[in-house]
């Protein structure tokens, strides 16, 4: 070999070596940065042992290919200032340091180096100074929450207008002033905008091209004086309560009502200073203890709604007694281990479902409050929403919107009298999946449902699915690990097999339960039917070489012999992916949503179509839903059943 050849070879080798060395240093950088973070923020998490943050044991740290991709440390008692080192996690996807009130000082501009960041959540910390413009250079950001810090007053940041991927913006109590530029609402992915409790002023103008995906604009408690409505009023929720535009007496606009329901009882209103003092106290207490974040709540002094509870109403026992006709048996629509569920009518005419705890199942006041706080933050069209609660005279009641067409279970079993065709079943799967994806990926804090099953999927007036019953839910990344193992949650037949081994519930446990639900939709059978486990039965019967995967005999009679089941194989494939033994092999719910949308598209249906529009809905309305005359849909008794609910026998079935 002459020298002319040797040199390039050497360069090549050297390059390889350099490349290896560099990729090695990259992850070393992460280790170094994380260790410096650990020291500077006084992180004291017992599982952070050993020198490798990617070993899998470091709670709150997720790695991929030896790079840190997620730092998720909410409510962990972090103290001090975030150093510019934070900018060195160049593969970081998620940064969540919320509810660490002793995290103070300015946010370092280096946060703008995290080019792969999709989720940034810094709620309820003590950050001050200016919000760095560099956040605007995070092109992938999908979720941004900077609520409740101590930032300097600033105009609505112009850089927000460039965030093309943003779906959720939450900057409550963020000292924002001036007018929101109309162009902001035309960000194509935008869904949730919560900018309440700021000093935003001028005119609310959505502009002509606002995002079609918008679900909520909550601007309560600002200084907005006007609202330019386009020719057609928007179909999503806008809240302008406690803005000058709503001060005039007699304002009846729906956007002047508080989120969910108006506070009809002036006695429930607190004097402004009282609310302020309460809030200050609450802020101070917010992150005191990770074991009991609500440790200082004194239910006896709970007349004033806390800021977190603003969206829901506190009902008096008297009010609920009245609207259920003294909890009359005629209004009793379900019962079980927890207590009874009553249907009621508010003076406004709104129908509600009241879950009334019986003595034995009452929680501590703090747990009850925690549950309400969690539920009150959940807003999605495919999730049943909390209207209010009652905590008085020894009673604990949760008040939900009433969902009129009963449970999916009653429909699958034929009990409710409603019959679904194949397309409608796919639609319902899409609705339930969207609700669940929202809980996992967009609720704040994210929520694992833990008890997904057909009796927890309710059907609204348009027969769209709503996910119900969060009695067993927990925020994702719960540090109170002691409570995780104390009781088995969920329902036999739907339980993630991994749960038995790890005793840990994850989002993927819900994905598994959802897979079981999909099989129910296909087969019309219970998950455990005459001793046979539906997942096993289907898994063992699938023969991909055959038409309909050879599952013809297992398909629900109600759909088997009708028109062709288009998209059937894809639907089965998706269900089986959700039912993978290992959680890591199951898709996240947002992928499940996308996949079901693809199935609907492939069979010529528009997933986004509103069923109330006759032009797009005929295929659903006319052929897909039928009613058996001998049953009344309203008689469905298991409205809010959860795992512990026993179905009440219905003595007076109307004929
Ligand atoms: C808002 O900003 C001003 C100065 O810009 C500051 O004095 C004030 O404390 C801030 N308010 C809050 C609630 O952080
Ligand atoms: C951001 O949007 C682009 C273009 O629509 C897309 O390719 C990319 O996947 C999005 N990123 C995220 C994290 O959603
Ligand atoms: C809005 O507030 C800003 C100060 O933040 C002020 O300069 C401006 O005049 C106000 N605009 C209106 C319409 O009140
Ligand atoms: C809205 O969209 C239309 C059509 O794409 C475009 O002509 C118009 O300039 C847009 N308006 C604004 C304010 O962006
Ligand atoms: C569902 O509920 C609505 C409202 O109560 C009712 O009008 C509708 O007929 C019900 N649909 C079916 C198929 O029962």
Helix content: 25-40%
- Note the beta-strand portion: 15-25%
Q: What is the residue-mean pLDDT, rounded to a whole number?
A: 77
Order of strands in the sheet with the most strands? 1-2-4-6-8-11-13-15-17
CATH H-level superfamily title of the largest domain: Ribonuclease Inhibitor
Q: Determine and state the CATH class of the largest domain.
A: Alpha Beta
Bound molecules: 2-acetamido-2-deoxy-beta-D-glucopyranose
Structural class estimated from helices and strands: alpha/beta
Distance between the termini: 97 Å
The figure for the number of domains is: 3
Number of helical segments with 4 or more residues? 13
Computed CA radius of gyration, to the nearest angstrom: 26 Å
Which residues sit in consecutive blocks of at least 5 with pLDDT less than 50?
1-5, 10-26, 260-273, 275-308, 471-488, 611-622, 629-655
CATH architecture of the largest domain: Alpha-Beta Horseshoe
CATH topology descriptor of the largest domain? Leucine-rich repeat, LRR (right-handed beta-alpha superhelix)
The overall strand count is 32
Shape: globular
Summarize the biggest pleated sheet: 9 strands, mixed
Describe this entry's structure for a reader.
It is a single chain. The chain is α/β, with parallel strands linked by helices. The protein has 3 domains: 22-256, Ribonuclease Inhibitor (Leucine-rich repeat, LRR (right-handed beta-alpha superhelix), Alpha-Beta Horseshoe), CATH 3.80.10; 313-401, Phosphorylase Kinase, domain 1, CATH 3.30.200; 408-607 and 629-651, Transferase(Phosphotransferase) domain 1 (Transferase(Phosphotransferase), domain 1). The chain contains 13 helices and 32 strands. The strands form 8 sheets. A 9-stranded mixed sheet has the order 1-2-4-6-8-11-13-15-17, with helices on one face. Helix 6 (422-441) packs antiparallel against helix 8 (507-523) and helix 6 runs antiparallel to helix 12 (589-602). The chain is globular. The chain starts with a helix and ends in a 9-residue tail after the last strand. Bound molecules: 2-acetamido-2-deoxy-beta-D-glucopyranose (5 copies). The site of one 2-acetamido-2-deoxy-beta-D-glucopyranose (NAG) has 5 residues, from loops.
């Amino acid at each position: 070999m002459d020298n002319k050849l040797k040199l390039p070879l050497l360069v090549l080798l050297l390059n390889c070596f350099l490349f290896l060395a560099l990729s090695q240093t990259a992850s070393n950088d992460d280790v170094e940065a994380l260790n410096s973070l650990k020291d500077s923020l006084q992180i004291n998490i017992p599982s952070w042992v050993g020198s490798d943050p990617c070993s899998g044991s470091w709670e709150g740290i997720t790695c991929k290919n030896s790079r840190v991709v997620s730092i998720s440390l909410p409510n962990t008692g972090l103290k001090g200032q975030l150093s510019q080192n934070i900018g060195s996690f160049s593969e970081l996807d998620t940064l969540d340091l919320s509810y660490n009130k002793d995290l103070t000082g300015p946010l370092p501009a280096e946060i703008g180096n995290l080019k792969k960041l999709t989720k940034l959540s810094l709620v309820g910390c003590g950050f001050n100074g200016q919000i760095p413009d560099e956040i605007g250079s995070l092109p992938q950001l999908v979720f941004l929450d900077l609520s409740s810090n101590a930032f300097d007053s600033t105009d609505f940041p112009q850089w927000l207008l460039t965030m093309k991927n943003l779906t959720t913006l939450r900057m409550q109590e963020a000292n924002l002033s001036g007018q929101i530029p109309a162009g902001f609402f035309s960000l194509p992915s935008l869904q949730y905008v919560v900018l309440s409790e700021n000093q935003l002023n001028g005119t609310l103008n959505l502009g002509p091209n606002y995002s079609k995906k918008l679900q909520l604009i909550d601007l309560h408690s600002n200084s907005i004086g006007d609202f330019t409505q386009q020719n057609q009023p928007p179909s999503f929720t806008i809240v302008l309560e406690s803005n000058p535009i709503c001060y005039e007496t007699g304002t009846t606009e729906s956007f002047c009502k508080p989120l969910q329901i108006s506070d009809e009882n002036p006695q429930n209103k607190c004097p402004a200073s009282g609310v302020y003092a309460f809030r200050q106290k609450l802020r101070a207490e917010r992150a005191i203890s990770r074991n009991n974040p609500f440790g200082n709540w004194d239910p006896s002094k709970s007349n004033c709604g806390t800021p977190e509870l603003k969206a829901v109403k506190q009902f008096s026992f008297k009010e609920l007694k009245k609207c259920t006709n003294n909890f009359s048996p005629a209004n009793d629509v379900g019962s079980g281990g927890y207590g009874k569920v009553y249907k009621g009518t508010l003076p406004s005419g709104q129908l509600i479902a009241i879950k009334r705890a019986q003595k034995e199942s009452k929680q501590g006041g703090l747990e009850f409050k925690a549950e309400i706080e969690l539920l009150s933050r959940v807003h999605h069209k495919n999730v049943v929403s909390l209207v209010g609660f009652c905590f008085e005279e020894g009673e604990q009641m949760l008040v939900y919107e009433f969902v009129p067409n009963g449970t999916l279970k009653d429909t699958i079993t034929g009990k409710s009298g409603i019959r679904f065709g194949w397309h409608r079943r796919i639609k319902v799967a899409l609705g339930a999946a969207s609700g669940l994806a929202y809980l996992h990926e967009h609720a704040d804090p994210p929520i694992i449902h833990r008890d997904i099953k057909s009796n927890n999927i309710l059907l609204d007036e348009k027969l769209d699915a709503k996910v119900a019953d969060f009695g067993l839910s927990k925020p994702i990344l719960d540090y109170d690990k002691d409570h995780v193992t104390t009781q088995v949650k969920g329902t036999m037949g739907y339980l993630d097999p991994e749960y038995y081994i790890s005793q840990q519930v994850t989002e993927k446990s819900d994905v598994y339960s959802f897979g079981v639900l999909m099989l129910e939709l296909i087969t019309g059978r219970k998950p455990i039917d005459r001793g046979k486990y539906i997942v096993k039965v289907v898994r063992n019967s699938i023969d991909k070489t055959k038409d309909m995967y050879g599952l013809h005999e297992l398909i629900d009679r109600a759909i088997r012999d009708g028109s062709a089941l288009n998209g059937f194989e894809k639907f089965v494939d998706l269900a089986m992916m959700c039912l993978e033994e290992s959680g890591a092999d199951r898709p996240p719910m947002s992928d499940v949503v996308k996949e079901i949308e693809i199935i609907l598209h492939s069979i010529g249906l528009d997933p986004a179509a509103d069923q109330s529009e006759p032009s797009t809905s005929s295929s659903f309305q006319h052929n897909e839903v039928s009613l058996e005359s001998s049953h009344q849909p309203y008689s469905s008794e298991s409205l809010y059943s959860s795992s512990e609910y026993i179905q009440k026998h219905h003595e007076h079935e109307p004929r």
